[in-house]
């Protein structure tokens, strides 16, 4: 079985002070490339699990979201391989995929033979931590402290370093 990092996207990998509705808006945070290179070098497979309710709300289409994700993959390609990106397009509809539901994590874990007990869900919102806990992962919280998280840090680089050290 493999171990993985399940990463939320907005506020973890990229700046989201403004909504990311097209590829030009997508900007990697400092330290993300180094953090993901180090994580992959230490045997973690990299996945992205992201709520993208802007699709249901009409701010972007699935095709536009895929173009944003293509840009993210291209920017990260020299540093790591993103195994898969899962997104939930729902905002009001309840199809069971929107975090804090663990469904996206559980689906990826089953598909890729991931040992959830050795894996981490890393996010910037309490719903990310809840999804990770419900899936059976350890968790890393970026930004505001969360007592439920296994690790808290100011950014992805700090959280990944804490996991590896």
UniProtKB/TrEMBL annotation:
Residues the UniProt record annotates as site (Contributes to substrate recognition): 98
Enzyme nomenclature, EC number: 3.1.3.-
Record has Flavoprotein as a keyword: no
GO cellular component: cytoplasm
Residue numbers annotated as active site: 8 (nucleophile), 10 (proton donor)
GO biological process, one term: carbohydrate metabolic process
Subcellular location: Cytoplasm
Residues bound to Zn(2+): 88, 97
Residues of the site described as Stabilizes the phosphoryl group: 50, 99
Record's protein name: D,D-heptose 1,7-bisphosphate phosphatase
Keyword Zinc recorded: yes
Gene name per UniProt: gmhB
GO molecular function, one term: phosphatase activity
Key words of the record: Carbohydrate metabolism, Cytoplasm, Hydrolase, Magnesium, Metal-binding, Zinc
PANTHER family: D-GLYCERO-BETA-D-MANNO-HEPTOSE-1,7-BISPHOSPHATE 7-PHOSPHATASE
Matches recorded under InterPro entries: HAD-like_sf (IPR036412), HAD-SF_hydro_IIIA (IPR006549), HAD_sf (IPR023214), Heptose_bisP_phosphatase (IPR004446), Histidinol-phos (IPR006543)
Family, as annotated: Belongs to the gmhB family.
Cofactor(s) the record lists: Zn(2+); Mg(2+)
Pfam families membership: Hydrolase_like
UniProt-listed NCBIfam families: HAD-SF-IIIA, Histidinol-ppas
Residues annotated for Mg(2+) binding in this entry: 8, 10, 124
């Amino acid at each position: 079985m493999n171990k993985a990092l399940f990463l939320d996207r907005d506020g973890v990998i990229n700046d989201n002070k403004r909504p990311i509705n097209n590829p030009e808006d997508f900007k990697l945070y400092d330290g993300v490339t180094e953090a993901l290179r180090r994580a992959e070098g230490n045997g973690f497979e990299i996945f992205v699990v992201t709520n993208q309710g802007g699709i249901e709300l009409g701010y972007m289409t699935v095709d536009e979201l895929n173009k944003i994700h293509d840009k993210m993959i291209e920017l990260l390609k020299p540093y790591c391989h993103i195994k898969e990106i899962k997104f939930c397009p729902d905002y009001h509809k309840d199809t069971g995929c929107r975090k804090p539901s663990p469904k996206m994590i559980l689906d990826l874990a089953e598909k890729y033979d991931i040992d959830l007990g050795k894996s981490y869900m890393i996010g910037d919102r309490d719903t990310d931590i809840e999804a990770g806990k419900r899936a059976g992962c350890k968790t890393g919280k970026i930004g505001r402290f969360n007592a439920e998280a296994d690790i808290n840090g100011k950014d992805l680089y700090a959280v990944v370093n804490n996991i590896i050290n």
